[in-house]
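Target chain:
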Amino acid sequence: MSDAQVDIEDSSYVASCPWHAYDFNLDTGSSSYGVKACVFPVRVQGDDLVLEFDRESNVTLASLEPISEKVKFKHAANPAADVPDATGNAVPGSKLYSLGEDATMCDWCVHILNTVDPEQKIELTTQLFSIFATREASSNPMPIGAGTVQPPDEPPRENIESVKPWQMINPRGGGTVKSRVNMLHALANIEQWAIDLAIDICVRFSTFQTTPSSESGTPAPLPRTFYYDWLKVANDEAKHFSLLRSRLEELGSYFGALSVHHGLWESAAMTKDDLRARISVIALVHEARGLDVNPVKIDKFRKAKDMESVETLEIIHNDEITHVTTGHRWLSWICEQEGTDPVKVFRECVGQHFRGAVKGPFNKEARLEAGMDESYYKDLVGTLPARGGHVIAGG
């Protein structure tokens, strides 16, 4: 928010977040997107900025904690590994970052989705976001390439055993290294799929246009900020995978040592024809469910005195609040363009594309931070039959 745009509207100062474009009234903290920030009177006293608290006494600053953007790469900064072609096969002699300046965002996305090696996938993903973000501030932004290439039906996986979600090992309480490795491995698998989901939404729906609410309305394409936001999510997921993979190795294991499931991609396949449904199910159900279960998992690792894993999981949890916010923002934007109610659209999409009930307990505070009050998820049930009683959470 230090780089926020500040404007005057109706005699009030309004700050707009440079990432999500949420607007916040600096008197009330309210936003037209439904989220709300805490606001406090601020005055300048010499060289200091003083925050005033009306109802609190003896309040002091506990800490300043910047969001960690550190990605733990295995390869060098500019690896010379062979890069997969459009079918996922390595091309001898090619370099990992071989896509030229003329490559479109969609070219990059399909390239990443077809990349089998998870290490190359995270390197390419962080490279794409860096290039896209840098060129957004230049006179030569990256072309989108909408409709020019097709994403794969399912990103390929190799050298890892796949099982059904309900066949996964229950890691139990986390009191042993083995149980914690099981939990971290399951989370790493979800994060790798989450990279693909964030990349896929950019290329699969690049030709999306809103449906006007009347015959006189005009269909609207997705703005470039849509792609920036989801590429930032993909960049975060790559960071998360790298942190979890690194922690697994520190505990004497590695990613691929245990079986995994493809449950998240099943939800992607069921929502491949509707952007509203994709956002609703992936970002506002699966990822929001991660906000519910993350504190419980973090507590298990804390009780086991595994503070290195706690630090990793807390980074992931804080980032995931912003991911749910991203989903909330873009579903709200689509509904605003189409003159519909985002809560109603969300509940209808989940009803059509989700298996069974969306069950608590819910992390109401974290969900509210992301813009989701109880009207979104209370008594929410999908009409598709549940299978195995397994809930997929996170991303």
